[in-house]
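Q: Given only this backbone (311 positions), what sequence would you predict?
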């Protein structure tokens, strides 16, 4: 029995009185739909920008399997993390700690979806993309959730690779290969992840400390976290421009990436400068919110340039 199951038994959340209360919305919540939407969107960009033509049915199947695989990883993450979710303000209303779904139900749900997504992708699209999807799920659930998240403040740095893989999985589904451009898209998401999540962790540090999760603000303090955020952002900004510099993207993307990168650096400097009070919290929140917009606009521009040649 893992820690999640033990915690649920201790708090009574696994009792008969709380079973059978789950509705469709609770199972949707297990899929982490907001994370899934970002995964599907970045995968769509990888699919569209891959060389060659893809049959619409194959494209739809690939995106569906990637979405289901991402949802499966989310459900398995919630299964394992139910004990810490129960003590964090941000997550205590999730279906398992709230008692609407049992840990065993979430585990069965996640494993079923994971197997479905990988098998269907392998049978109907190609083996390479299925293997990459299987590795992505394994990396997120086993490497990140079960190991890194509770053992090192570098959890987000290394574990962020799982969230960066979807464009490569979709590229492989469309072309049967892993191209340099898809690896560049992976690199952008990978480097984007630490400043994005550490900005959140700065104003949620008490939550992570209470749950015993060694996020960087908890183990190294907020000042070191601010320094690391600035370091990664200064690396992210030119990396975000790289698709245009390497000839993979056009002028529209070049302009958007330069302006977006400048915005990220500006806000990262604001986080670095403001060390206390409401101003520090506001700066971290602004960087967290803008980072989502930044990544979305970068990938949206790549998508538009692929669909509307000449922009």
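A: Predicted residues:
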């Amino acid at each position: 029995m893992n820690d999640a199951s033990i915690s649920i038994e201790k708090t009574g959340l696994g009792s008969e009185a709380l079973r059978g209360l789950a509705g469709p919305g609770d199972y949707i919540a297990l899929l982490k739909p907001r994370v899934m939407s970002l995964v599907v969107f970045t995968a769509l960009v990888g699919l569209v920008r891959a060389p060659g033509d893809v049959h619409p049915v194959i494209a739809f199947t690939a995106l569906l399997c990637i979405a289901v695989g991402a949802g499966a990883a989310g459900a398995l993450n919630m299964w394992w993390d139910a004990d810490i979710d129960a003590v964090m303000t941000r997550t205590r209303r999730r279906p398992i700690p709230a008692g609407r779904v049992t840990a065993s139900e979430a585990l069965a749900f996640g494993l079923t979806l994971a197997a479905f997504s990988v098998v269907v992708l392998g049978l109907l699209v190609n083996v390479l993309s299925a293997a990459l999807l299987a590795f992505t799920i394994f990396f997120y659930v086993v490497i990140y959730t079960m190991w890194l998240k509770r053992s090192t403040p570098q959890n987000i740095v290394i574990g962020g690779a799982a969230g960066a893989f979807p464009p490569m999985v979709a590229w492989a589904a469309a072309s049967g290969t892993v191209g340099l451009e898809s690896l560049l898209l992976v690199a952008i998401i990978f480097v984007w992840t630490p400043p994005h999540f550490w900005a959140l962790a700065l104003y949620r540090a008490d939550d992570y400390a209470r749950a015993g999760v060694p996020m960087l603000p908890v183990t190294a303090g907020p000042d070191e976290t601010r320094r690391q955020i600035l370091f990664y952002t200064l690396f992210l900004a030119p990396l975000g421009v790289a698709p245009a510099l390497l000839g993979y993207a056009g002028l529209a993307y070049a302009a958007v990436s330069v302006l977006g990168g400048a915005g990220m650096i500006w806000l990262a400097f604001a986080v670095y400068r403001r060390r206390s009070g409401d101003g520090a919290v506001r700066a971290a929140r602004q960087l967290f919110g803008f980072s989502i917009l930044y990544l979305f606009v970068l990938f949206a521009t790549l998508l538009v340039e692929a669909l509307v040649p000449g922009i």
